[in-house]
Amino acid sequence: MKLFISADIEGCAGVALTDETHKKESVYQRFAEEMTEEVVAACEAAHEAGADEIVVKDGHGDASNIDPLKMPEYVTLIRGKSGHPYNMMYGIDDSYDGVLYLGYHAPAGDPNFSISHTSTGNSLYIHLNGKVMSECMLNSYTAASHHVAVLFLSGDEEICRQAKELIPGITTVETKHGVGAATWCKAKEKVISEIREGVKKAVTGQKKECQVALPEHFTYEVTYKDWKKAYTMSFYPGMQKVDTFTNKLETDRWMDIVTAHCFVVY
């Protein structure tokens, strides 16, 4: 069995503040270590459940957060940013049997986690076909474009709820929940244990229930925090100005959406 893991940091155990996710801050290193530990736990559990090949994409920031020297021998870690529009999903193709998400978080504009965002901090919120678009939604449609099931997600309570709405068969592990600027964090040991149990359950479960249906048409709409950014990005090919802060793109091709996203929100 061949699995793809896309890993982020904001949804990992204990993370509650933006500084904890930025490499130049003194508090960052401990949470990068936690990200590594959660990835290792997921890989070990998946391997025990029958996965013999696992590819992990470091999906946070400059993509050099996970310690490559702690990866099991059956794991390949993709570090750094290739520049490919798939970004957090770079490396996915039709050969995989399933996708797992670790450390995921609520989308831009969501009040249920204090450091919610979608890819960058430039958008107030992003809509895809009328629904708020999270990184989970973005990446799940990329998986769907390759006919790969999305089996598991760990992260804050809200992104777990949204993942289940999009993918009814997915197994999730809640690591925390937010109230205003506060974050109620589950103990690290409990998170690691639940990731192990959840991944085993997900990998041995019915993958047909975790297939995401790819829409036939896409309307991608970005509302920016800064009207000047909105103006500049309105010139991206195919982008239409909706109002002072909002632009939209309509297309039947998923690759058009992921490519636009990698340009217009960065």
Automatic annotation (TrEMBL):
Presence of keyword Acetylation: no
An MF annotation (GO) of this entry: metal ion binding
Binding residue positions for Zn(2+) 1: D8, E10
Keywords: Metal-binding, Zinc
A Pfam family per the record: Peptidase_M55
Binding site for Zn(2+) 2: D8, H60, H105, E135
Keyword Zinc: yes
Active site residues of this protein: H117 (nucleophile)
Designated name of the protein: Peptidase M55
Organism: Oliverpabstia intestinalis
